[in-house]
User: What shape does this take?
Amino acid sequence: MLTTIAAPLSIVALATALLAYFLARGARAAERRASARVASLETFAARVQTQTERDRAEIARDMHDQLGGLLVAAKMDLDGVARRLGPADEAARAKLAQVSASLDSGLAMKRRLVERLRPSILDHLGLFAALQWQLSEMCTAAGLECTAQVPDADPGYAADAAIVVYRLGHDAIARAIAAAEVSLIELDANVVADALELKLTDDGANAVADPAQAEWLWALNHRAEGLGGSCRLERRPDGGTRLHLRIPTARLAGASPC
Assistant: This one.
């Protein structure tokens, strides 16, 4: 009788064990597929970001070389015509002056657009100088004080990586400027061991736990992960917030993912 009862129980136990095994195996396989999918999406996102910056740089070069050349040539032609006008051509001279002023405005707008597409200081003076200039420009426009501590020597990071860090810095500064009651923003950049570390501190009233802050931080961290980095935002004990951004130098000096 006991043998008759034990046999079905053994079969049930074996079936249960087999089911658990195959479920666990399926779960591990699904986890591996999900991880591979996430890695593939992150690689794709990094490539899209890299290509976007390359397209911006190409547009900036075309605007500088072609549009800038056309505007400068038109202004030179106008100046030549103005010099040939006689004393009795005051109306024509005034009209030419208006057109020349419009061309000056067009050239100034072209320069601003080119700098937004691809900041020339980044290519000419390097990442640290570009970050310091960006902080100064944005804080001056907002009427805020700022300080920056950056290394004297530029490390010469790959262009595709440097522009990503520059954009991350821009968004971090813009967030700090938008904080309520902010008056001072501080930037501290260092190359520590095997990583680039950026710290951006403000004395504003941003709420770290605010849903909008969490969403912004997620987006910033996602972009930093494209370079193998990470970022975190913390509330300072004496008020304000501090953003920590850390990116491995090997990814900054290496080839782009595109």
